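In the design runs reported in the main text, the only information available to the sequence generator was the tokenized backbone. The following block is the verbatim input for one such run; it is reproduced so that readers can re-run the procedure and compare outputs position by position.
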């Protein structure tokens, strides 16, 4: 393609020279029109700024090749080409840049910087006209952006494509190249309701020995400390200040957490806007206690009980979430329970392994779920336990229930496995 461009380019130069009445071929002509073709995520203005080409600029064919090289070096494109010819007014070039963008792009994030995120993003936007919230994860971009961040961070920076710990999706993370210090000790201040030893024990396994990063440490607080307070009704517990200092007797940091426990809240009204099971029956099964302390450990147990009941109606992938409504003046937290049932599965077939031809029909007759009925995932184990409790078999050995689901047809088949224990040895005659 470059050979064709070169031949066409020479022809254009000759034509322009003749049109201008010159005896020799001039080296440069102005760009009369300039456009970009093939771009999807990036704007034409962004691409032209990186290319270095401008309307009215006097250029020769090597300038187009240089523009192509600049765009390829940006790390944003799979391919870059160009097309040029005489402009409509015969006074210069009509130029088109032909681009194919890299489609796989990732969100840009920053970790372990002391500088505000806005300052870091501003440095990248100033240094690269193509920068946006999502960019390709090419080595050119990672290297260039790390270099742009280093003057701001005042230390060496590295960029990597890695899974986000919250969303599990791939993101581009820039962070200082030097490893952060590890957490050696966690201390708490202003805590009254829960003893310090209890708080330390709750957070030790997740925090001690890990690299210090305040954002992730706060996630650990929310996962390990907040539930302890919410179980006692402190729904507004907060950790307004976290400080670090060198640990006194070991290598690492001592992290001190200031606790703001807040008031104790009561449980208010609980609603389940469902369109299946009776709301009254679900609330009764959940055991919520309006008017008492809002114990979110008990509330979570109640939500799990609701999920079990919904699953027993064939909704094997049911999920339950709760929406809080907090009245800070009355110190009451009300709940709205949302149920995502998913698809309903139905029972298809029962298989029995390990029983003789006389016993198997009897067991099959006792099985209560009929073909086509909603499948209760708890029923098989309950059925086996019932057989054992009622003592219907002599020397009943190990039993097992195996369930095979068909997600396409939303059916479930159950296989029950039976085995017999050897009879006890006979006592010898005296």
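Verbatim output:
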């Amino acid at each position: 393609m470059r050979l064709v461009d070169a031949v066409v380019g020479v022809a254009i130069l000759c034509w322009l020279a003749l049109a201008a009445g010159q005896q020799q071929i001039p080296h440069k002509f102005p760009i009369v029109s300039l456009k970009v073709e093939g771009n999807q995520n990036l704007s034409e203005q962004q691409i032209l700024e990186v290319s270095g080409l401008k309307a009215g600029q006097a250029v020769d064919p090597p300038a187009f090749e240089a523009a192509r090289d600049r765009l390829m070096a940006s790390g944003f494109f799979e391919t870059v080409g160009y097309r040029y010819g005489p402009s409509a007014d015969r006074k210069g070039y009509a130029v088109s840049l032909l681009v194919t963008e890299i489609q796989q792009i990732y969100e840009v994030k920053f970790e372990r910087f002391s500088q505000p995120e806005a300052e870091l993003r501003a440095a990248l936007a100033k240094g690269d006209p193509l920068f946006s919230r999502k960019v390709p994860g090419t080595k050119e971009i990672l290297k260039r952006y790390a270099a742009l961040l280093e003057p701001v961070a005042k230390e060496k920076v590295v960029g990597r494509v890695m899974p986000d710990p919250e969303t599990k999706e791939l993101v581009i993370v820039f962070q200082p190249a030097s490893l952060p210090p590890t957490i050696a000790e966690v201390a708490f201040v202003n805590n009254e309701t829960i003893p310090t030893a209890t708080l330390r024990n709750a957070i030790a396994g997740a925090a001690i020995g890990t690299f210090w990063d305040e954002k992730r440490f706060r996630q650990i607080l929310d996962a390990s400390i907040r539930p302890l307070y919410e179980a006692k009704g402190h729904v507004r517990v907060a950790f307004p200040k976290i400080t670090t200092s060198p640990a006194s007797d070991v290598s690492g940091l001592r992290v001190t957490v200031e606790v703001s426990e807040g008031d104790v809240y009561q449980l208010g009204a609980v609603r389940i806007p469902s369109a299946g099971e009776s709301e009254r029956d679900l609330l009764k099964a959940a055991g919520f206690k309006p008017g008492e302390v809002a114990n979110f450990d008990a509330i979570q147990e109640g939500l799990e009980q609701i999920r079990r009941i919904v699953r027993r109606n064939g909704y094997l992938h049911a999920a339950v979430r709760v929406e809080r409504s907090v009245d800070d003046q009355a110190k009451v937290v009300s709940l709205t329970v949302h149920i995502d049932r998913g698809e309903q599965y139905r029972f298809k077939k029962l298989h029995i392994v390990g029983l003789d031809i006389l016993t198997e029909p009897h067991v099959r007759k006792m099985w209560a779920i009929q073909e086509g009925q909603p499948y209760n995932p708890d029923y098989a184990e309950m059925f086996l336990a019932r057989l054992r409790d009622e003592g219907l078999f002599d020397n009943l050995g190990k039993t097992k229930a195996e369930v095979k689901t068909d997600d396409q047809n939303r059916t479930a088949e159950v296989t029950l496995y039976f085995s017999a224990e050897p009879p006890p040895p006979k006592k010898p005659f005296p």
